[in-house]
Amino acid sequence: MSINEVQDEIIEEFGLLAGDRESTIFYIMELGQKLEALPEEHQIDDNLIKGCQSKVWLVTKFEGGKVFFHADSNTDITKGLISILIRVLSGRTTAEIQQADLYFIEKIGMNNVIGSQRSNGFAAMIKQMKLFAFAYQAKAASEQSSN
Amino acid sequence: MLDIAKIREEFPILHQEVNGFPLVYFDNAATSQKPKKVIEALVKYYEGTNSNVHRGAHTLASQATEQFEQTREAARAFLNASSTEEVIFTKGTTEGLNLVASSFGRSQIQEGDEVIISTMEHHSNIVPWQILCEEKKAILKVIPMTDEGELIFEEYEKLLSEKTKLVSIVHVSNSLGTINPIKQYIDLAHRYGAVVMVDGAQSSPHFQLDVQDLDCDFFVFSAHKIYGPTGMGVLYGKKALLEKMPPYLGGGEMIKEVTFEKTTYNDLPFKFEAGTPNIGDTIALKYALDFMNEIGREKIAAHEQDLLAYATEQMKAIDRVKIIGEARNKVGVISFNVEGMHHFDVGMLMDANGIAIRTGHHCTQPLMHRLGIDGTVRASFAIYNTKEEVDRMVGSLRKIIAKFAK
């Protein structure tokens, strides 16, 4: 499924919640509780995303030209939020991640649901994920040119 | 009996739905809501009186000055200070603390001197003293606390010595609700010749104050926590101390005469009020003080104690809820955590139920470290809150726990 197909799927799922704030938060928290926990050795300060009020640890793997994300957080809502981003962006090429237009955020009215402070944290997560993609791409390019 | 329904009518903001539920406002320790009379006073001032104070060559200016100074008299009476010269208008508690740290602190604290604060201070009663102590090479000492959230008087006694120049402690903890037996702390500090500052941000909304009886040297509070406007506060200081202190800010209002060679300063309290003050909010503060006086501070305290007792009992009956801060004397503040849930998640779900509470470290990170936690959920009550609202909170909490607590 393409990034946009996954986004459309998310928009449809959130559409079923009909804008009810409580159900939407419940849903995000449930997604968070389903996210596989990150081993404790990865829950270190070096892996924290800066700009989040809660603690969000993000680790990455670069395999076969694709970036894989794993994350955890000390709060279920934040865990739910990063799990949505992982669903959209993990296992994609560096170019796909960098170019991704994440229109689902506005479509599902995310900012209204999570409020402005958490929206800033959410934006920080996206920025960090795109940065990783950029770094892997730059690294791959420099390895290629040195070969 | 107080007619709380009638009191609630005076607060327009309370009558609305948030996220589809009638608002329950339990974030009063952060800021209280404002009665109509305070809001109307602001509008009336800007519509009818707006003029700069203390330089009245015209009628409106003298009206504005008169109303402005009426607030000073009302604030004096609120604190039972002996004179309006001892009542200085500030931006709020934080500025009052910084004013004293900067003016009294810089002029009186020397290398090797000691300043004492407590474990349960708000950051605004920590950071100004840290800055001062760093600059002066003075030493900052901290009164320890029990697990229940009470300061340990015997340990305080051990910290005091002839080196202690200043003690600055919180009257009521914003995070735990603990009412510190402040008079005892003041008396003991005075025996060592130390000056005592009291952070009254969280005591001023809840019970009767008497700075002469307490015999504190400085006392600060914020208007916005006592049903008044934001951006306005009061610093009380004993006249003899204030007279000796150098100005905090230089500018208009605070001078007697300025030449390029030398400036002489204005008398108290104006020496500490440089620049055009926050006139509108200051005038409106009087209406907040009137509001509290009309109900009566004993009655406010009694109502909030009643709510606290009721809420504490209800909360303790919920499985997985742990109340943080169980001092014997508390104001209407309940800090708590839910076992297996993060306080942010609890707060967000309660907000979805229309219940406004605060989550996080409440600007008391050292206190959180002492308790070994990174934050709490905090419900804090005011005169307009009811037992039905407590029931709403308890119901919401039970639902959240049943669904999410792991």
UniProtKB/TrEMBL annotation, chain A:
N-terminal signal peptide:
none
Matching SUPFAM superfamilies: SufE/NifU (SSF82649)
Q: Could you tell me which Pfam families the record lists for this protein?
A: SufE
State the source organism's domain of life: Bacteria
Fe-S metabolism associated domain: which residues? 18-130
What InterPro entries does the record point to? Fe-S_metab-assoc_dom (IPR003808)
Similarity field: Belongs to the SufE family.
The molecule here is called SufE family protein
Automatic annotation (TrEMBL), chain B:
Q: Which organism is it from?
A: Rapidithrix thailandica
Which cofactors does this protein require?
A: pyridoxal 5'-phosphate
Its biological purpose is as follows: Catalyzes the removal of elemental sulfur and selenium atoms from L-cysteine, L-cystine, L-selenocysteine, and L-selenocystine to produce L-alanine.
Q: Which PANTHER family match?
A: CYSTEINE DESULFURASE, CYSTEINE DESULFURASE 1, CHLOROPLASTIC
Q: What is this protein called?
A: Cysteine desulfurase
Entry's Pfam families? Aminotran_5
Catalytic activity of the protein: (sulfur carrier)-H + L-cysteine = (sulfur carrier)-SH + L-alanine
Q: Which UniProt keywords apply?
A: Pyridoxal phosphate, Transferase
Return the NCBIfam families for the record: sufS
Example GO biological process term?
cysteine metabolic process
Q: Name one GO molecular function term.
A: cysteine desulfurase activity
**Matches recorded under SUPFAM superfamilies:** PLP-dependent transferases (SSF53383)
Domain named Aminotransferase class V: which ranges? 24-392
The UniProt similarity line reads: Belongs to the class-V pyridoxal-phosphate-dependent aminotransferase family. Csd subfamily.
Q: Does the keyword Acetylation apply?
A: no
Question: Which EC number(s) does the record attach to this protein?
Answer: 2.8.1.7
Under InterPro entries, the record lists: Aminotrans_V_dom, Aminotrans_V_PyrdxlP_BS, Cys_dSase_SufS, Cysteine_dSase, PyrdxlP-dep_Trfase, PyrdxlP-dep_Trfase_major, PyrdxlP-dep_Trfase_small
